[in-house]
Amino acid sequence: MLIRNKLSLALILLALWVCTGSAAAFDLEKRVIKTRLPNGLTVLMLERSFSPTVSLYIRHRVGAVDEVKGQSGAAHFLEHMMFKGTPTIGSKNYTAEKKLLSRIFRIGQTLDREKKKGEKGDQRRIERLSALLKRLQEAHRRYYIPNEIDRLYTENGGLNMNASTGQDVTTYFVNLPANKIELWARIESDRLLNPVFREFYTERDVILEERRQTTETSPDGKLFEAFLGAAYQVHPYGIPIIGLPEDLRFLSPQAIRTIHKKYLRAEHIVIAVVGDINPEKTLKLVTKYFGRIPRGSSQKNSIPAEPPQREERKVIVPFDANPSLIIGFHKPAPPSDDDYALDVLETILSKGRTSRLYAGLVSDKKIADSISVHNGMPAARFPNLFAIFARPRHPHTNAELRDAIFHELEAIRENPVSEQELAKAKNQMKMDYIRSLDSNAELASILSYYELLLGDYRYFSTYLSRINRISAQDIQKAAERYLVAENRTVALLATEKKVTNQNEP
Amino acid sequence: MNHKRCIRIFVLLYMLASCFGILSEARAADIFPPPDRLQYPALEFRLPSAQRIELKNGMVLFFLPNPELPLISLSALIRTGSAYDPPGKEGVAELTAYLLRTGGTKKTASDAVDERFDFLGASPSVSMGLDSATVHFTFPKSDLDACLELLSQMLSEPAFEEKKLQIALSLKKEELRRIADNPQKLAFREFNRLLYPDDPRGRYATVASLENIVRDDLVVFHRKSFFPTNILIAVSGDIAKDDAVKKIEQYFGNWENPGSAPAVLPPPSKSARGLYFIRKPLPQSIVVGGELTVSKKDPDYYAFALLDFIIGSGGFPSRIFTAVRNNEGLAYSAGSFYRARGNYGVFGTYAFTKTASTAEAFELIRTILRAVAAGAVSQGDLDWAKKSVLNGFIFSFEEPAQIADQQMTVAYEDLPADYLAAYRSRIEAVTLDDLKRVAAKYLNEKKRLTVILGDVERFGKWPDGWQSPVFLNPQP
Question: What residue ranges do the domains of chain B occupy?
Answer without folding.
Answer: 2-37, 51-252, 274-472
